């Protein structure tokens, strides 16, 4: 800067914190409804974060809190689901799946 003042910039790597609001849940339900194929009983959540309906929210399934919210919405709204695609969501932590699969 011209006056010699130095600016310190700190950058934290990672994804933003997410609060799952009721409004966000409603948008997630709409996005899931558009991606559900009743003939196959299949739900395609590939690149879910890029869904145009969710553009105002950070809805990355790589965040466990978001993924768990989506799973609960599936349980409540699509109990007949037989196939689920989670491709291209950069899900890295899979150890919480064992608790879901056991229940």
UniProtKB/TrEMBL annotation:
Transmembrane portions of the chain: none
Ranges of residues in domain NXF1/2/3/5-like leucine-rich repeat: 34-100
Gene3D superfamilies named among the record's database cross-references: Ribonuclease Inhibitor
Xref: Pfam families: LRR_NXF1-5
Family matches, as PANTHER family: NUCLEAR RNA EXPORT FACTOR, NUCLEAR RNA EXPORT FACTOR 1
Protein name, entry field: NXF1/2/3/5-like leucine-rich repeat domain-containing protein
């Amino acid at each position: 800067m011209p006056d010699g003042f130095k600016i310190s910039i700190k950058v934290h790597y990672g994804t933003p914190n997410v609060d799952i609001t009721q409004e966000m849940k409603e948008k997630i339900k709409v996005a899931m409804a558009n991606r559900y194929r009743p003939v196959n009983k299949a739900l395609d959540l590939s690149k879910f974060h890029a869904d145009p309906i969710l553009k105002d929210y950070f809805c990355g399934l790589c965040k466990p809190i978001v993924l768990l919210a989506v799973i609960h919405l599936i349980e409540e709204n699509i109990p007949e689901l037989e196939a689920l695609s989670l491709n291209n969501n950069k899900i890295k932590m899979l150890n919480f799946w064992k608790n879901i699969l056991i229940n």
